[in-house]
Design goal:
The chain is of the alpha/beta class. The protein has one domain: Rossmann fold (3-Layer(aba) Sandwich). It contains 6 helices and 6 strands, in the order H-E-H-E-H-E-H-H-E-E-E-H. The protein is globular, with a radius of gyration of 17 Å.
Length: about 230
C-alpha cells in the first residue's frame, strides 16, 4: 500500500486524526502527502519556546507552500516560569530527572491538550532512528491518551525519506545540512558525528540507552494496514 493510500485509510476510518509534527524531515514528508491528497488530517506542532529559528520558520513555510494552517501548542507559562525560578533556565543539564521534568512541561503537557478529543494521531517515527525504536509498530494503541497511534513511516529507511524530500521538493529544516539528524530543542540538540546513530545528538550528555522525552510510550506489537478494520 502506498503512503497516500495508507493515509487515506487512516483519515477515513479514524477521524478525527492529527499529525503531531516535530517539523522533522519525516513529518514534512507526511505533511506533504497529506496536503497532496487533501486529507482531513490536522497538523499540529509543539513550540517549546526553545526551538531553533530554523525549525520554527518551517511553520510559516508549510502555510505558504501547502495552504495548511499548523496549529501550534505552547507550554503553560506559569509552569515554565516556576521551573526556571527553581532550577534555572538550563536546569535540565543537571540530571535526567530535571531534563524529563522540562520535557514534561514544554512537550508532554501541551501534547495532552493537542490530542484531546482525537481518535488517532500520526507520527514520523521510524525503526531505523534508534535501537529503542527497533520494535516500533505501524499501529499501536496509546493507553496514556487512549487513542490509536500510527507510525506510517515505521519501516522507511533514511534514504527513502530523503529521496521523497528531493523528488517532491519538500521543505526541510536546514539544520540537516549542518550535520543535525534528530532535531529537538536548541540547547538539547547537537549535530551527529560520523558513526553515531541518528538520535545521538539528542540529550548527548545523558547515557545513550533509552533517551526519549516522554511523548511516546513503549511500543506495542506491529499491526499491518489490513488489520485496521
Amino acid at each position: 500500500m502506498t503512503l497516500a493510500a495508507t493515509l487515506e485509510q487512516i483519515a477515513a476510518e479514524f477521524s478525527p486524526a492529527v499529525l503531531a509534527s516535530s517539523l522533522s524531515a519525516e513529518d514534512m514528508v507526511l505533511t506533504d502527502a497529506i496536503a497532496r491528497a487533501g486529507l482531513p488530517i490536522e497538523v499540529f506542532a509543539l513550540d517549546t519556546g526553545r526551538l531553533h529559528a530554523e525549525t520554527v520558520s518551517l511553520i510559516a513555510e508549510i502555510q505558504d507552500r501547502y495552504g495548511i494552517a499548523v496549529r501550534v501548542y505552547e507550554p503553560q507559562a506559569a509552569a515554565v516560569q516556576e521551573y526556571v525560578r527553581v532550577h534555572g533556565r538550563d536546569g535540565f543539564y543537571g540530571n535526567v530527572e530535571l531534563r524529563q521534568r522540562c520535557c514534561e512541561i514544554r512537550k508532554v503537557e501541551p501534547l495532552r491538550r493537542a490530542l484531546a478529543g482525537q481518535r488517532a494521531w500520526l507520527t514520523g517515527q521510524r525503526r531505523e532512528q534508534a535501537a529503542s525504536r527497533s520494535a516500533l509498530g505501524f499501529r499501536e494503541y496509546d493507553p496514556v491518551h487512549r487513542l490509536e497511534k500510527f507510525n506510517p513511516l515505521a519501516d522507511w529507511s533514511n534514504s527513502q525519506v530523503w529521496s521523497y524530500v528531493e523528488a517532491n521538493r519538500v521543505p526541510y529544516n536546514r539544520l540537516y545540512d549542518q550535520g543535525y539528524r534528530s532535531i529537538g530543542c536548541a540547547p538539547c540538540t547537537r549535530p551527529v558525528l560520523p558513526g553515531e546513530d541518528l538520535r545521538a545528538g539528542r540529550w548527548w550528555w545523558e547515557p545513550a540507552a533509552g533517551k526519549e522525552c516522554g511523548l511516546h510510550v513503549a511500543h506495542g506489537k506491529l499491526v499491518r494496514m489490513k488489520e485496521i478494520a
